[in-house]
Design brief:
This protein is an alpha/beta fold and 211 residues long. The strands form 3 sheets. The protein has a 4-stranded parallel beta sheet with strand order 3-2-1-8. Helix 2 links the parallel strand 1 and strand 2. Helix 4 runs parallel beside helix 5. The longest helix has 17 residues.
Length: 211
């Protein structure tokens, strides 16, 4: 499980994907790989999520996970489809424990000290900080990192090119999640060349921001 989290940290950016049609999964995967960012968090916000995860996972060249996982049933669906990691907007003991039963790493949402402690009590040391933009941003993460020195954060929500540097500059930030390089309308409209360009720009920016 630590290997998966290390891979996410190595990429530094995790594209948060909403797919309305599973048939868009393979073209999107092509764009992600072509842009130099072979990783995706496919959110369970649409009925196409499980099939899209399966299509990407079957390729073998994309580190694909499931996002917006809020129920035990979705944990089972995501793992059965081939998700390598799971992300939840909040901290649910049932969701975390089910993921652990499957042996799949899970990043629960945590934006308060109590939520971070709840994640620690479940044996986790990496959490999703969501929604980052309206929960205090990088300053809040830095403040939480003080008493929780061993915890790593993956801020998502309100993260983009304009503030990416604020988050990636924090040693406690493992990676950031964002959708700016995979806009839902472009994917749905078939503008995968445009998506590939946005992905490449995101990778270039993250590379420039490396310490």
């Amino acid at each position: 499980m630590n290997d998966i989290l290390s891979q996410l940290a190595a990429h530094r950016i995790v594209p948060v994907v909403v797919l309305d049609d599973a048939r868009d999964a393979i073209p999107l995967a092509d764009a992600l790989v072509g842009g130099g960012l072979p990783v995706a968090e496919v959110t369970f916000r649409t009925a196409a999520a499980a099939d899209a995860i399966r299509a990407m996972a079957d390729r073998g060249d994309v580190l694909v996970g499931a996002g917006t996982v809020v129920t035990v049933a979705q944990v089972d669906q995501a793992v059965a489809a081939g998700a390598r990691y799971l992300v939840s907007p909040g901290t649910s003991r049932a969701v975390v424990e089910r993921a652990q039963e499957h042996g799949v790493p899970v990043l629960p949402g945590a934006v308060t000290a109590s939520e971070v402690q709840a994640a620690l009590a479940l044996g986790l040391d990496t959490v999703k900080f969501f929604p980052a933009g309206t929960s205090g941003g990088s300053a809040a993460i830095a403040a939480l990192a003080a008493p929780f020195g061993g915890v790593r954060f993956v801020p998502t929500g309100g993260v983009g090119p304009g503030n990416l540097d604020e988050y990636l500059a924090l040693p406690c930030v493992a990676a950031v999640g964002g959708s700016w390089m995979v806009p839902r309308d472009r994917v749905r409209g078939g503008d995968l060349d445009g998506v590939r360009s946005l992905v490449a720009d995101a990778v270039a920016l993250a590379t420039r921001l490396r310490p």
